[in-house]
Structures are given as structure tokens and as C-alpha cells.
Design goal:
This protein is of the alpha/beta class. It contains 32 helices and 31 strands. β20 and β21 form a beta hairpin. α2 packs parallel to α4. The protein binds ligand MGD (2 copies) and molybdenum atom.
Length: about 775
């Protein structure tokens, strides 16, 4: 393909025919077409398995299978008929494999056998489960302290796997639980817990049917939570407002056609999903929220003077909140100039947004990575909450907070105790039930784990799923840190780069996916997950496992645990013979899960109570809290500014329509008009010319930071794109080498993946072929 052919505009609506075509294509091209279609029809049904895609929930009354293009891709991808078996590893050395793209690696198919790295030949060789478990036990037992091991979790792990894993790791003696959540919704958890006493969303599915306005902030549901488009569209149809805040005009938010409304598809009509679309600067959302609050305050004062009904919900504020006075003082002290400059919105736009907010009696605020992957993400989340508190928009039907989670069980994993800073009640509860001294010292998050491995303080790295080497920031540096380890272990379904960045010893432990039948000693097992609305339900795999050598995640954890700890503190093998035994342990220790096995019998599962949704505030002060944060001065890091480096652009790193995090299903990004290529940077045409380039030029992206390290990715195609001036975008994970390890959110340690100061340089002429291009 020539460069021109990679870029075409996409005029159709989101979902609709394009999505259907794409799903059909991916089904028909898959090597297991019929089996996959059958599998897909079983997703989200009572007897089927939970979609391994995103964490969006369903209405419990609605028995319909929800149709979503990207869920279909996730199922197809897992049910691949190709195999990465011992013969594959005999053909390819690790150094050979490391030269392949991420797309190629996962495309090779499912891992089938436990494999051990042999450094003398640079090949993975087949091993047995017993040998693998005793190698792990030997390494763990030889450490000077349990805190020299890191136990990573990716958010697809079921509740049963996560609970067992945390029990094993704590019985071993550490709280080193870096997890994908550290890179994801950490700010939502921290900000919400401080302000309202719970870290989870306060709404359920039905609230979307009752809201007068739904704000969608820093989120691209058309790609990442496609099933969310339906309630958004229904909201618009019944006259509610959907207000989007996003620097990019995301197709899924602009217009949407639902595949299950055939008439509409025939006419190729589509209705607008959003009724207002504001395009702030990257990192400008706190300023937007502050601007809305400032308008509300102005109108509140005017109403008071004129004897009109108040704008604020004073009954709610008096009964349920603290700190209004201090908050209003910082709102007064924040200048309009500062708000306008940082938000990137005009005063007129801010006023319009404020009017839309004020007119709605019931408002839901949804947000995702555009909010959480910034340095000031916690105060931004808290400013969203401040606004909601002003008008009593938490804990009433049709209103509330909805941090839309990513991985299908990332929320459940935290509930089960995957937490490097565990609450005391959890540790007490484990100690009481299992009678061992639990470690109290807080452990490492993702960034701290990388630093510990870099400095050789940590020597063993074990990953329950995910792709740590690619999902994390500062890639070359992180890879070096992993290579420092004595042992790296990955429990995975498919080959990825984390398997190729090995410690001195390294293991690949292949596991069942969620689509597969999980047969244990006492029968076929189901596993549970918690969705973004705190609904917990059980699901059963339907497909024959890809290989007879695969084990389930709970079985693998039990194997590692019994090799390392014997039958302490539980009989691991007996427990995993029937997962209802794991659920009994959860019922004994985690609040809300009493009678767990019983409750699962209810079709659709059960809802974990959310105290804030009932206006019960489990904060240290017993009420919800207004947080009076000052708007940050400059958003670019002080160190960069001190060095006098002026960034050409601010870069956000995001997902294409054809990927699931580091898993690339393909190289297209249909809605953004990019085909067959991922090394692209979207830049406003005015910026391209200002910087002395032409659209279609090849550039290197150089990241600006103050530690003297060089961070660069090469040969990116410059694409002229409708993005605000100064605000660029490119895909993750290719751009992770640009994210400095030390550039993370205050309190969250979440890498600032949506705010990287960069310079553009002309790419060297001798190497102009982008690394991800295919013909
Ligand atoms: N198909 C598919 N589904 C997925 C995933 C996937 O990779 N593929 N990943 C899953 C996971 S783990 C997660 S966390 C979620 C991620 O879901 P999203 O958060 O939707 O993912 P991103 O692609 O990172 O998109 C960020 C969006 O925020 C906008 N944005 C970026 N910076 C800012 C900002 O400063 N302010 C505002 N207002 N907007 C901004 C971007 O333009 C983009 O539209 O999706 C989950 N679901
Ligand atoms: N620059 C930048 N970096 C980011 C982000 C960003 O927006 N920008 N987003 C961040 C976010 S929100 C997240 S959540 C992280 C994601 O980080 P991770 O969760 O670590 O990454 P994934 O790409 O989701 O993991 C994919 C791998 O999981 C394995 N896998 C798939 N299914 C299963 C299963 O059922 N069981 C097991 N054991 N393994 C399985 C497969 O081998 C696959 O290769 O990345 C973060 N990194
Ligand atoms: Mo995520």
C-alpha cells in the first residue's frame, strides 16, 4: 500500500452496516467460523459465558444477546484454531520472535503447552506442569524476602482466580500486586473514595433510561464500549441530552446506527448520538468542570438576589455534604482566563455546557481514560464529583457517577483483594479466616514494581494474564527491568512480547480462556465476574479447550501455591476441584458476598450494594465531601519547562478500533479512516504547516522529559486530522517508549498516557518504511 491508500475518510455511521460487515468478515475469515458463531450466540446468556470484551453491563431483565462488533472480535480471537506449540518454538528462537511485530505474535494462535526458556539455545522448550511449579517454588523460596517478588494481574482474571491468587501471594508474604488497574481507573477509585466513600460507580443500567443528561467525558464508547451506544441513543430519542467532551470527534459519539434496527439500516439513516460535542484540550477537563461550577455559582447568586428558586440543591448539600464554603472560595478564586486557557473551550461553550448541566434534573457523568491518565486525574475526578454534589446528582434515580471500567473483571479483581494498598479490614478478615500473619506493609504498584526490578530489588515476576512488557510505560527501560529478573512467568492464552523479554529463567503457562469448558476433578466449573455496575454473575465456557494441556487459572494458581507453600493455609488442590469452595472462602471474607453460591442462582446474578448510591457516605467524616483543589498552573511538567524545552505538541495515546489493549486484531481504524497501518500521528493541519511539515511526511516523535534519557519512536506518518491545535494523538502500545516512567499521576502512579510533551523531527531518509505497515 502507498501512504495515500492508508488514509481514507469514513463517512458511514458507527456500528450499523459497517460493523456487521466487519463482524461477518472476521467470522468468515476465522479458521473456526461455525464454532465461533455458535460461541458468540452464547455470550451473555444465562447458560453462556461472559463476553471477554469490556466491563459494560446489561439490563438484568433483558435476556437478549447483545450484539457488539468488538465483543465478536474478542471471542474470535480467543477461539483461534492456530497453535503455538512446541514445534513452533523449536522453529523460532526467542531473538527471532522478538523481531516480529506484536500483531504477528498474537496472530500465531493459542499457546498449547507449558514452556520453559532455555538460555543456552535461546529457545522455549516443552516442560511439564510439575516441573514448572517446582521451578517457581524454588525461586520463591530462595528469596531473602517475599517482597522481592512481583505478582501482576490483568483485569480479565475471574473473581475465583483473583481471590485464590491474592490468598497465595499474601500467604507467601507480600502485598506486591501491580495490576492493570494501576494504569487505568486508579484515579477514579482514589478520588471517589475520598469524596464519597466508595471507589465504584454509583449508577446501574436502568439509570441511563431515567437520566435527563448524560455526560461522556474522555471516553470512546463506539470502539471500547460499543454496547453503551444503545442506551445513549435511546436517551437522545426520548429527549435527554448526551453531552460529549473529547478533543477528537469520535464517530461513535457523533452518529450511531444500531445493527438490530433493520429499517434504519435500510435507509442508511442514523440519528445523532450526542446533542452537544465539546472539544477541550488534553488535560483540560478539570478546567471545564470548574468553568461549569463557576457559572452555576454565578447563577445561584443571581437567583438569590432576584428571589428565584436556587440553582444548588441546598437540602442535599446540608444533609449530605461538607466543605461547600471552602470549595466555593476556590471556585471564586479561579480566574476565567485560567479556565478558558486550560480548558481549550471558549467562554460561550462553557456557558452552553453549564446551561445543559443546569437544565437537567438528573445527570449521569461517565468517564474513562481521557480523565484518568493525567497527572491531575484525582482532582479532575473530584471536580466532576463536586459538580454533581452541587445539584444533588448522586444517589437518586437517573443520576450519578459512572467511571466506565475497562477489562471485563478489573473491578471484581479489586473487590477480591488485588490491591497493593489493601484496606485494613481486608487483612483482618483474611487473618481471622485463614489464621496466618498477613503482610501489613503496602506493596508495589506497576511503576514501583518496574523500579524495583530495574534496581534488582525484585527478582521474580509472575503475571496472571496481560502483557506487562507492552502495556507499561518507558518500554526499553521496562524491558531491561524484566530482563534483570531471575525468573519471569506469564500465565497466558496467546503469545505476546512479555514472553520474549525473559528473566534468566522464564516460563509460559498456557491457560483456558473464558470461552472454554473448564473441567476440574469434580465437574465443569463456572467463574464469576463483576461488571462496571457492580453486578456479579457466573458464566460457563462452551467450547472444547484448544489443547488438552491447558489448565484453568485457578488450577495454575493452586499448582504454584501448593508447590511453594504445601497445604498452607488451605488445601489448594481440593479447593480447585470445585470452585464453589473458592466462593465459600470469598463469602467468608469479602463483604457483600455472603451466601455467594446461593445468590448466583438468581438469573442475571446479584448487585453489590453501593453505599453512596443509597446516600450513605463511608468517608472518614461520614458525609460526602467537596474537595477544594486549585486548578494546576501549567500542565506541562516543570522540569521540562525549566530546561527551556518547548513542546511542539501534546500527545495522547489511545486505542484503534481494531485492538484490545496490546492485542491487535488488525491494522485498521475504520472510524478514523486509517487502514493497514498503525505508526501514524494525528495532528491538526495548521500545526503540521507551523512545524514545517506536509501531511504525509514521515516523522520521529521525541518525548521531552527532564532526566536526560532519550525517548523516541521513528517513522510515523503525519496525518492531518480534525483535532484541536496543539493536541496530537497516536496509538498505544507503539508509543509507550515515549511515556517516561516518572511521569505519572499524583497519588495514582498511573502513567500519563494522555499527556506526553513531544517534539517532531524529520525521519531519517534511509528508513522510511513504517514498522507496522503491511501490503
Ligand atoms: N475494543 C476494545 N474495547 C476495550 C479496550 C480495547 O482496547 N479495545 N480496552 C478496555 C480497557 S482496559 C479500557 S480502560 C477501556 C478504555 O476505553 P477509553 O477510555 O474509551 O479508551 P482510549 O482509546 O484510551 O480513549 C480515550 C478517549 O478519550 C479521549 N481523550 C484523551 N485525552 C483526553 C482528555 O484529556 N480529555 C478528554 N475529554 N478526552 C480525552 C480520546 O480522544 C479518546 O476518545 O476500554 C476497554 N474496552
Ligand atoms: N500508552 C498507553 N499505555 C496504556 C494505556 C493507554 O491508554 N496508553 N492503557 C492502560 C490500560 S487502561 C490498561 S487496562 C493496560 C492493559 O494492560 P494488560 O491487561 O497487561 O494488557 P492486555 O493487552 O489487555 O493483555 C493481553 C494479553 O492477555 C493475555 N490474555 C488474554 N485473555 C486471557 C485470559 O483469559 N487469561 C490469561 N491469563 N491471559 C489472557 C493474552 O496472552 C494477551 O496477550 O494497559 C495500559 N497501558
Ligand atoms: Mo484499562
Amino acid at each position: 500500500m502507498s501512504d495515500n491508500e492508508h488514509i481514507k475518510s469514513y463517512d458511514g455511521p458507527a456500528a450499523g452496516w459497517g460493523a456487521l460487515k466487519s463482524v461477518t468478515k472476521s467470522w468468515l475469515e476465522s479458521d473456526n467460523a461455525v464454532r465461533n458463531i455458535r460461541a458468540m450466540l452464547k455470550t451473555n446468556q444465562d447458560t453462556g459465558f461472559d463476553c471477554p470484551g469490556c466491563a459494560w453491563g446489561e439490563s438484568p431483565e433483558d435476556g437478549l444477546v447483545k450484539f457488539c462488533e468488538n465483543g465478536a472480535k474478542a471471542v474470535n480471537w480467543e477461539a483461534s484454531g492456530r497453535s503455538v506449540d512446541p514445534a513452533f518454538f523449536a522453529r523460532h528462537s526467542v531473538s527471532d520472535l522478538a523481531r516480529q511485530t506484536d500483531y504477528w505474535l498474537e496472530y500465531q494462535g493459542r499457546l498449547t503447552h507449558p514452556m520453559r526458556y532455555d538460555a543456552s539455545t535461546d529457545h522455549y522448550v516443552e516442560t511439564t506442569w510439575d516441573e514448572a511449579f517446582s521451578l517457581i517454588a524454588r525461586h520463591l523460596q530462595s528469596l531473602d524476602s517475599p517482597n522481592q517478588a512481583e505478582f501482576y494481574t490483568s483485569g480479565r482474571a475471574s473473581n475465583e482466580a483473583a481471590f485464590l491468587y491474592q490468598l497465595f501471594v499474601r500467604a507467601f508474604g507480600t502485598n506486591n500486586f501491580p495490576d492493570c488497574s494501576n494504569m487505568c481507573h486508579e484515579a477514579s477509585g482514589i478520588g471517589m473514595t475520598d469524596s464519597i466513600g466508595t471507589g465504584k460507580g454509583t449508577v446501574v443500567f436502568e439509570d441511563f433510561e431515567k437520566a435527563d443528561a448524560i455526560f461522556v467525558i474522555g471516553q470512546n464508547p463506539g470502539t471500547n464500549h460499543p454496547r453503551m451506544l444503545e442506551p445513549l441513543r435511546e436517551a437522545v430519542q426520548r429527549g435527554a441530552q448526551v453531552v460529549c467532551l473529547n478533543p477528537l470527534k469520535e464517530r461513535g459519539l457523533e452518529r450511531f446506527q444500531h445493527p438490530q434496527h433493520p429499517l434504519e439500516m435500510l435507509s442508511s439513516g442514523s440519528e445523532p448520538t450526542s446533542t452537544a460535542y465539546f472539544r477541550p484540550a488534553l488535560g483540560g477537563d478539570m478546567a471545564v468542570m470548574r468553568g461549569i461550577a463557576k457559572f452555576l455559582l454565578t447563577w445561584e447568586r443571581e437567583a438569590k438576589e432576584q428571589g428565584q428558586p436556587p440553582v444548588f440543591d441546598h437540602d442535599f448539600i446540608n444533609e449530605h455534604t461538607s466543605g461547600l464554603g471552602d470549595y466555593l472560595s476556590v471556585v471564586d478564586a479561579t480566574s476565567w482566563e485560567h479556565i478558558v486557557e486550560q480548558s481549550g473551550l471558549s467562554i460561550d461553550d462553557l456557558e452552553l455546557a453549564a446551561q445543559m448541566y443546569r437544565r437537567a434534573e438528573r445527570v449521569i457523568m461517565c468517564w474513562a481514560m481521557g480523565i484518568t491518565q493525567h497527572r491531575h486525574s484525582v482532582p479532575t475526578v473530584q471536580e466532576i464529583i463536586n459538580l454533581q454534589l452541587l445539584r444533588g446528582n448522586i444517589g437518586k434515580p437517573g443520576a450519578g457517577l459512572s467511571p466506565v471500567r475497562g477489562h471485563s473483571n478489573v473491578q471484581g479483581d479489586r473487590t477480591m483483594g488485588i490491591d497493593e494498598q489493601p484496606p485494613e479490614w481486608l487483612l483482618d478478615s483474611l487473618e481471622q479466616r485463614f489464621r496466618f500473619k498477613v503482610p501489613r506493609l503496602h506493596g508495589h504498584n506497576t511503576v514501583l514494581a518496574i523500579k524495583a526490578m530495574e534496581e534488582k530489588r525484585s527478582k521474580v515476576f509472575i503475571a496472571l494474564g496481560g502483557n506487562f512488557a507492552q502495556a507499561t510505560p518507558d518500554s526499553p527501560r521496562t524491558h531491561e527491568a524484566l530482563r534483570n529478573c531471575d525468573l519471569t512467568v506469564n500465565i497466558s492464552t496467546k503469545l505476546n512480547r512479555s514472553h520474549l523479554v525473559t528473566g534468566r529463567d522464564s516460563l509460559i503457562l498456557p491457560c483456558l480462556g473464558r470461552t472454554e469448558i473448564d473441567m476440574q476433578k469434580e465437574g465443569a466449573q463456572g467463574v464469576t465476574v463483576e461488571d462496571t455496575f457492580s453486578m456479579v454473575h457466573i458464566s460457563y465456557g462452551q467450547l472444547k479447550p484448544r489443547s488438552p494441556h491447558l489448565r484453568s487459572e485457578p488450577a495454575i494458581i493452586a499448582g504454584m501455591a501448593s508447590a511453594t507453600l504445601g497445604n498452607h493455609p488451605i488445601d489448594w488442590e481440593h479447593t480447585v476441584a470445585d470452585y464453589s469452595r473458592i466462593r465459600d472462602l470469598i463469602a467468608d471474607t469479602i463483604p457483600g458476598f455472603e451466601h455467594f453460591n446461593e445468590k448466583l442462582k438468581h438469573p442475571g446474578g446479584f448487585h453489590l450494594a453501593n453505599p453512596a448510591a443509597q446516600r450513605l457516605w463511608q468517608t472518614d467524616i461520614g458525609t460526602a465531601r467537596f474537595t477544594p483543589s486549585v486548578l494546576p498552573g501549567a500542565l506541562v511538567n516543570e522540569g521540562v519547562l525549566k530546561r527551556g524545552d518547548k513542546p511542539d505538541l501534546i500527545l495522547q495515546t489511545m486505542r484503534s478500533h481494531d485492538q484490545y489493549n496490546t492485542t491487535l486484531y488488525g491494522l485498521d481504524d475504520r472510524y478514523r479512516g486509517v487502514f493497514g497501518l498503525r505508526d501514524v500521528i494525528f495532528v491538526n493541519e495548521e500545526d503540521i504547516r507551523r512545524l514545517g511539515f506536509e501531511p504525509g511526511d514521515k516523522v520521529d516523535l521525541v518525548s521531552l522529559w527532564d532526566d536526560g534519557r532519550k525517548r523516541r519512536v521513528s517513522n510515523f506518518l503525519l496525518v492531518a486530522y480534525d483535532t484541536p491545535v496543539g493536541q496530537a494523538a497516536a496509538y498505544y502500545p507503539e508509543t509507550n517508549p515515549l511515556v517516561p516512567l516518572d511521569s505519572y499521576g499524583d497519588r495514582t502512579f498511573t502513567p500519563t498516557s494522555k499527556f506526553i510533551a513531544i517534539r517532531l523531527e524529520r525521519a531519517a531518509p534511509d528508513n522510511l518504511i513504517p514498522t507496522s505497515a503491511v501490503d
